[in-house]
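User: I'm curious whether this sequence folds into something compact or stays loose and floppy. Could you predict its structure so I can see for myself?
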Amino acid sequence: MYWFILLFPILIYPWGFDPYYTDPKTNYLYLFVFGSWLYILFKRKFRTLFPTKKYNLTVYTLFVFICLIEVSTAFSKYQHTAIYGLITRKEGLITFFSYCSIFLFSYRLLGKTRWNKTISGLAIMSLVVSIYGILQHYQLDFLPRNSMMRNYTGTYAFFDNPNFFGSYSVLVFLSAITCYITAETRKTMFLYYTVICFVFVALIFSNTRSAYLGVFCGLLFLTFFAVIKIKFLWKKWATILITLVLLLLFINMSENGRYNERIKSLVSDSFNVVSQHSTGREGSSRYFIWEKSLPLIPEYFWIGSGPDTFLFIFPATEEELMTYLSGQRVDKAHNEYLQMAVTLGVPALLTYLFFIFLILRKAFRAVRMSSGNEMLFLYGLISIVIGYLVQAFFNISTVPVAPLYWAILGITLAKSEQLLKHVALQKSKLLDRGKDQIA
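Assistant: Here's the prediction. I'll summarize afterward.
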């Protein structure tokens, strides 16, 4: 599991007539999950995937979630797509089962000695991906591009799309930040400082506003919930924030204010929507997609249309597609929560949100009972989840990125439960000592 998480971002197959990295990453995901289940069944380790009764509500919620997806698939008019996903997206029932499996494996099988190493390894591996992304921005990439990206001048690294690369960058940037604030030596601190700088530059070059917002919210959370309370972090935190601001200013100046305009458009688009002066083109026409998608919720309220079947039910006319999207077909709602509500059904969406709530609630409980680097590491994990959830409001789930997110969810829950169990054990020992003294 550890090596799968570390290597997954760079598991690509760049050869062939039209290399599309989502395909090999999906195959790698399926192969790993299938092989892991075979190993678990062969070694009779099935029971190890389920925690004690005190901690099993989250796993039961996950089980309900996958059952609801199966019901949505069974009653879908587009069963083949619902099972296997669209050719370009691959997010059918099998993929959702794989995501849930990745969560279980990282939660129950990764091992407590590997939790911190996995996050730090994910951050360090992102250095390779980010350097390639930066080279790609300057047209120095050496791998063949697929037909959709041959004339594209931006950065997408090994993720087929700049938005997907942005989602990945949120996860690894906040992972690197987590490792940076918990680093105990100058050598490791400098290593993660370097990683943060490279990931940040690549993130800027991705030109993905949802990723900018996700990173900003993650940093904001860490600032007010962790750093502001711990004085010895202030110098370290100020150093990295000043560096990020200087990098942004330098890159923006060197590219004639391009990224300044991109960031300002976040505010202007939001203002247009709130003030009811929308043109539908806000958020790269996301607002138009959302307006057309929301009326679908009552129709597909209970079981949805089936996983990854949004393409077949999106109600826009050819004229509207030409006006707002240059004729491009819409196969995702560009909002992960709206996508779930329409394709999986509202009960599945609520179950998913409850699942996330249970993980975050347990993480916050563990934070209150921890101290030192354990507390900071947990705050970092929470910031990663929050950053992803924020960017998901404007982005889509995708196979090259989602397994990493589900693995981080598993690590967050495992780490939280381990700390809660440790505190409960300590209290039990103290109570026993008190009873012995009284006796």
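Summary: Residues 2-432 form one domain. Residues 66 and 97 are 7 Å apart (CA to CA).
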